[in-house]
Amino acid sequence: QVQLVESGGGWAQPGGSLRLSCSVSSNYFSIYSMAWYRQAPGKQHELVARISRTHSTYYVDSVKDRFTISRDNAKNTLSLQMNSLKPEDTAVYYCNKETEDPWPWGQGTQVTVSS
């Protein structure tokens, strides 16, 4: 069974930065479009950013120009560099492939942005 392990979350002040990582235990990591998602308290699960197998990227408007998604297919790792953090970025962040049949979800990593 594929395991997703997210890490790198924590607390940051508004304007600060965090870098999230996701380790994927699948030999097929490189063939899938991958994505970061987040869920804030009382809100729906939402797509934050995705990166295709050819490294083309998409960002939701609220994080554009602040977040950068990247992948290392040799290490089966997905990353999310988050700069200029805002309180509204507070959420649990998850990674998964961007398909209608996601892998079992990991535990996610909590990001809290506050002063």
Q: What are the main properties of this structure?
A:
115 residues; mainly beta; six-stranded mixed beta sheet; 10 strands; globular
Topology (SSEs and partners):
Elements: E1 4-7, E2 10-12, E3 18-24, E4 34-39, E5 46-51, E6 57-59, E7 67-72, E8 77-82, E9 91-97, E10 109-113
Parallel strand pairs: 2-10
Antiparallel strand pairs: 1-3, 3-8, 4-5, 4-9, 5-6, 7-8, 9-10
Helix proportion of residues, in percent? under 10%
Low-confidence stretches: none
What's the overall average pLDDT, rounded? 96
Overall geometric form: globular
Number of DSSP helices?
A: 0
Count of extended strands: 10
Multimeric organization:
single chain
Approximately how much beta-strand content do the residues carry? over 45%
Major sheet summary line: 6 strands, mixed
Q: Give the spatial strand order of the biggest sheet.
A: 2-10-9-4-5-6
Distance between the termini: 40 Å
Q: What is Rg? A: 13 Å
Describe this structure in words.
This protein is mostly beta strands. Helix content is 0%, strand content 46%. The chain is built from no helices and ten strands. It has strands at residues 4-7, 10-12, 18-24, 34-39, 46-51, 57-59, 67-72, 77-82, 91-97, 109-113. A six-stranded mixed β-sheet has the order 2-10-9-4-5-6, with no helix packed on it. A four-stranded antiparallel β-sheet has the order 1-3-8-7, with no helix packed on it. The protein is globular and about 40 Å long. The termini are far apart. The mean pLDDT is 96.
